[in-house]
Design brief:
Blueprint lengths: L1 H14 L10 H12 L8 H15 L2 E7 L5 H9 L15 E6 L4 E6 L4 E4 L18 E8 L7 E5 L8 H13 L2 E7 L6 H10 L7 E6 L6 H15 L5 E4 L2 H9 L2 H22 L9 H16 L3 H10 L1 H95 L1 E11 L9 E11 L1 H10 L3 H42 L11 H12 L1 H32 L2 H25 L11 H11 L2 H9 L4 H44 L1
Parallel strand pairs: 1-6, 1-7, 2-5, 7-8, 8-9
Antiparallel strand pairs: 2-6, 3-4, 3-5, 10-11
Helix pairs in contact: 2-3, 2-12, 3-12, 4-8, 8-11, 9-10, 12-14, 12-18, 12-19, 12-20, 14-15, 14-16, 16-20, 17-18
Pfam family, one: Dynamin_N
Organism: Halarcobacter ebronensis
InterPro entries: Dynamin_N, P-loop_NTPase, TRAFAC_Dynamin-like_GTPase
């Protein structure tokens, strides 16, 4: 039983599809959509997989808060204050020329991303070398990412922008794009510069649509009295209230000084130094024990003791006066909830957009099949008319051949009739009466004979008249055969030409959007490239089959006409000679009752036709429902059947994509 149980378990593990359980929340929702869109039936592209993975990373990525403002408003100092560490370079010139993403990392480091796609890492201390727009070599850098082991960065990613009145228009455009995409905006301005006309123009141009996620921070409050601060704050709230949810005066300098001196920050810095030195010593020493590090460890403990015992009341007061806490509370209580909702809305909107792109691309593929179906449907009337034209045209040609053969028969009958000649004959009749007993009277009469030698000479030997006439008729019939079979080929060429015009552009069809399925479009190109196998071959085979049947019939009649017409004439003459001979015998027996038979010309013609099997020839050449008519009718019906079959086949390909669209619409609806 244990072996059977193991087998069942292994089978279930391998072949039984398990329902995937997704986590609650936005990430779980994205994963659910991802699993459905990456189903094998959609033949998903790597690009689709990547963009869906990117949405998961985006959902997990901390909320982004952009720091922006005009030149020299103290953005870098303010960010340093939020990070509790003097990391970003500051100065009197606009040094931040690139977007700086400030993210959480296990250690301080700087990542430089270039426009070429290349990336490199540098020590955090080297950041000034990559942010000064006065350096020409900075033009190759796309953006910078600063990593720091700060707890605040686990939930918030700050974006330091070049500003909206940078010397470079491209920097201004970059900032503008950032403001549109981030979860929150902190507009930083100097308290003595706030409300000036230049700033009002910038706010009107760039900030009008961001009120719900924007905070105005008035920097350098430490330079003014409380009354001046309150007056300016109220003025800005009244004048620029439509751009900001709140206005907060702060001192970035005081905040940086107090936060960087906070015991938690100092302890963290000492820890970083301690761990760094410990790792270096482990690498550089032959370690059998940790005794070599005992001294450093004791020093580390002493420093932590000093930090904890230090009076921090002054630092706490400085932090309160800086008012930086109001900024942090606004981020936590106003920006974060809105950003989470906004992010979820944006991600789900993008997921629906991804579905819409996939639907549009499938509709593009469906249009390929629709256009082929349209061609096949529209071709029907033209092809049926082409078949009908073959019948009309070559029925006339066949009738002409028939007339030629009719003329031959008439000439042969006429020349035969013309050579029926009279000749003297005698019969003996017993005389009546006693005196004439046993005596006979000779009675002369006229009978007929057929001068076959003269007939053969006239028809066949001297100028070969009949031979020439037959060859001319056979040649005409052969030409009709060649022309009609070529007309059949032209019917196929007509279908082929229409479909090849369809084929040409679709052999090269490519997806319009990167996330679309490469395999689906490859399959569509392959279908177009193989349109002969998929569509045309059935038509081609049918046409060749019809041509073969037509040729067999023509070959039969060619053979019939090529049959020895001399022998046929001999048989006809022999028949009438027999008829004459039989009539003579009857006449001689009972002259009063029977006459000598003289063949009429129409009788000779009828017999010649019978010996030639002319009834079949006549049916083939002149009947309204002749063989050409029958094969044309068969061809038309066969074409309609094949055309409908190929339309249904193409529709079946199209239906695959219609179903996929329905499946994606269902996924889209569930988002």
């Amino acid at each position: 039983m244990s072996i059977l149980s193991n087998f069942v378990r292994e089978y279930n593990e391998k072949f039984t599809q398990k329902e995937e359980i997704f986590e609650e929340g936005l990430v779980g929702d994205i994963k659910k959509v991802r699993a459905k869109l990456l189903d094998d039936k959609f033949l998903p592209s790597i690009q689709l997989r990547n963009i869906l993975d990117k949405q998961i990373r985006r959902a997990r990525y901390p909320m982004e808060v952009a720091i922006t403002g005009q030149f020299s408003s103290g953005k870098s100092t303010f960010l340093n204050a939020l990070l509790s560490k003097n990391i970003l370079p500051t100065g009197i010139t606009p040094v931040t020329s690139k977007v700086n993403f400030i993210n959480y990392g296990e250690e301080y480091k700087l990542k430089i991303t270039y426009y070429s796609g290349a990336q490199e890492y540098a020590p955090i201390e080297a950041i000034a070398d990559f942010t000064d727009q006065r350096k020409d070599e900075m033009s190759d850098i796309k953006y910078l990412t600063l990593y720091a082991p700060m707890d605040i960065l686990k939930e918030i990613s700050f974006v330091d922008t070049p500003g909206l009145n940078s010397q470079s228009q491209s920097d201004t455009d970059t900032t503008r794009r950032v403001l549109r995409d981030v979860g929150g905006i902190i507009w930083l301005t100097l308290i003595d510069n706030a409300g000036k006309m230049s700033e009002a123009k910038v706010l009107e141009e760039y900030m009008e649509h961001f009120k719900n996620k924007s905070l105005c921070v008035l920097n350098q409050k430490d330079k003014f009295s409380q009354e001046q601060i309150e007056t300016t704050t109220k003025y800005i709230q009244d004048k620029f209230g439509k751009y900001f949810a709140k206005v907060v005066p702060i001192s970035a300098k005081m905040a940086l000084e107090s936060r960087s001196a906070h015991s938690d920050i100092l302890i963290h810095d000492e820890y970083e130094k301690f761990i760094k030195k410990f790792k270096e010593d482990l690498k550089n020493n032959d370690v059998n024990s940790l005794e070599f590090f005992e001294k450093d460890f004791n020093e580390y403990k002493n420093k932590l003791k000093i930090i904890r015992e230090k009076d921090s009341s002054g630092n706490t007061k400085l932090l309160e006066e800086s008012n930086i806490q109001d900024v942090l509370e606004f981020i936590e209580n106003t920006i974060r909830p809105q950003a989470a909702e906004s992010k979820e809305y944006a991600i789900k909107k993008d997921l629906k957009g991804i579905c819409e792109i996939l639907i549009k691309e499938y509709e593009t593929i469906i249009a390929v099949y629709d256009s082929l179906i349209e061609i096949l449907k529209n071709a029907e009337q033209d092809i049926l008319e082409a078949f009908e034209d073959i019948h009309k045209t070559y029925s006339k040609e066949l009738f002409s051949v028939y007339n030629s053969l009719e003329s031959i028969m008439e000439k042969m009958a006429h020349d035969t009739f013309k050579n029926i000649k009279r000749q003297k004959a005698a019969r003996f009749e017993e005389r009546k009466g006693f005196l004439h007993k046993d005596s006979y009277e000779k009675i002369e009469y006229e009978t007929y004979w057929i001068d076959s030698d003269n007939i053969y000479k006239s028809l066949f030997y001297d100028d070969q008249t009949i031979d020439k006439m037959f060859k001319r008729a056979i040649k005409e019939l052969k030409q009709v055969e060649l022309d009609s079979t070529e007309a059949y080929r032209n019917v196929y060429r007509s279908v082929k030409q229409k479909i090849h015009r369809w084929q040409e552009p679709y052999e090269q069809i490519k997806k319009h959007r990167e996330i679309s399925s490469d395999l689906e479009f490859s399959s569509t190109r392959h279908f177009a490239a193989k349109v002969y196998e998929n569509v045309l071959r059935s038509f081609h085979r049918a046409i060749l089959e019809n041509i073969s049947a037509l040729r067999k019939k023509f070959a039969y009649f060619n053979g019939a006409l090529s049959y020895s017409y001399i022998q046929t004439t001999q048989a006809t003459i022999a028949h009438f000679e027999q008829q004459i001979a039989e009539s003579v015998l009857l006449y001689e027996k009972e002259p009063t009752k029977f006459n000598i038979y003289h063949p009429r010309e129409d009788e000779i013609l009828t017999k010649l036709k019978a010996n030639f099997g002319f009834e079949k020839i006549e049916d083939f050449l002149t009947s309204k429902r002749n063989y050409l008519f029958k094969i044309i009718q068969y061809s038309k019906n066969q074409y309609l059947e094949i055309n409908q079959d190929r339309i249904e086949f193409v529709k079946s390909k199209k239906l695959e994509y219609i179903q996929k669209i329905e499946d994606i619409k269902l996924i889209q609806k569930e988002i």
